[in-house]
User: Which sequence fits this backbone?
């Protein structure tokens, strides 16, 4: 199981993770028709509610069969959740296994968190409609690919998304609103602002892109990471063009405007600092991770964060325009030098 925490930051194995997006499922998405209307003509995607099945209304009379039934219903996701999210090895014959799970389900703070999720997400119909539209486009772009299952769950504030080969998990407790009072104290304000319902769909698509293609990240150069991040955003934009750019990048409108107005200077900064072929993450990490702004020498404090991500997306966009490559061709191409060359990227 891959734990895809908040996007746009690295773990120690240099995997790329997920952070900020924002989408209104209605007309404010930049489309005059609700996504739910569009979804009538596509196959409906149902999100399985693992957190509801795991923590029933009546937790007093939970039996051992409760967990074995969950294992049968959710299979790989269930065992991954136990081991990776809870840190419990799911050895069904071990009496301590059932005790540990029962203790988690009955713990007051977990029950309160489950109640908060139920209150805010009594149903996921709007999200299902958005995913349904995106997956219809995905099947068109990737005719031979399998559409994954989507499962919601409660991560106890450890991860926003997780992924298997055929399952994308959505940690709903990471989307309880920017003013939710019980987030861990270590969650900074800029992160909390993106922990809302509006961010779930784009983050889910990012998780899907990363899960499908992160094996491409064997090249440790900044160029590779920058273009990979760019491809992830391009993937989201192609599947959900209704999304405003601010939502795809996790930027405020001011930050998005700053990037668009400073595109040439951003590229000049990358070139002047000789970052493209740099293999030392310490030299380029700040251009890829989320923050209030890009904290790097020579970059003004009014900048947007993740300038490398923005730059990578613009190169991918230019490559698509110049070559006419399909989304499938772009996502499967990890010849980073070729992409850069054929993009003929030269911002003013």
Assistant:
């Amino acid at each position: 199981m891959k734990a895809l925490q908040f996007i746009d930051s690295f773990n120690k194995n240099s995997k790329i993770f997920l952070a900020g997006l924002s989408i209104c499922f209605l007309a404010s998405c930049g489309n005059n028709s609700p996504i739910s209307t569009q979804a009538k003509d596509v196959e409906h995607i149902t999100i399985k509610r693992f957190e509801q099945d795991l923590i029933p209304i009546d937790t007093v009379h939970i039996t051992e069969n409760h967990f074995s039934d969950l294992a049968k219903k959710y299979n790989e996701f269930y065992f991954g959740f136990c081991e990776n999210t809870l840190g419990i090895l799911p050895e069904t014959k071990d009496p301590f296994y059932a005790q540990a799970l029962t203790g988690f389900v009955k713990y007051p703070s977990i029950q309160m968190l489950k109640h908060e999720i139920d209150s805010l997400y009594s149903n996921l119909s709007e999200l299902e409609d958005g995913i349904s539209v995106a997956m219809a486009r995905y099947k068109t772009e990737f005719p031979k690919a399998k559409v994954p299952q989507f499962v919601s769950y409660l991560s106890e504030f450890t991860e926003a998304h997780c992924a298997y080969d055929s399952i994308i998990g959505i940690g709903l407790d990471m989307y309880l609103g920017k003013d939710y009072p019980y987030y861990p104290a270590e969650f900074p304000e800029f992160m909390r602002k993106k922990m809302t319902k509006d961010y779930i769909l784009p983050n889910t698509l990012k998780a899907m892109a990363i899960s499908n293609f992160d094996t491409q990240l064997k090249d440790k150069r900044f160029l590779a990471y920058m273009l990979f991040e760019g491809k992830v955003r391009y993937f989201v934009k192609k599947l959900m063009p209704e999304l405003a750019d601010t939502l795809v990048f996790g930027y405020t409108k001011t930050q998005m405007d700053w990037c668009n107005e400073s595109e040439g200077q951003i590229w000049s900064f990358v070139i002047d600092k000789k970052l493209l072929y740099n293999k030392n993450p310490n030299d380029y990490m700040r251009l890829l991770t989320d923050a209030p702004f890009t904290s790097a020498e020579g970059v003004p404090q009014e900048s947007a964060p993740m300038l490398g991500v923005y730059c990578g997306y613009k190169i991918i966009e230019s490559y698509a325009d110049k070559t006419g490559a399909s989304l499938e061709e772009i996502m499967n191409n990890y010849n980073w030098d070729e992409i850069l060359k054929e993009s003929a990227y030269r911002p003013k």
Notes: The chain has 17 helices and seven strands.
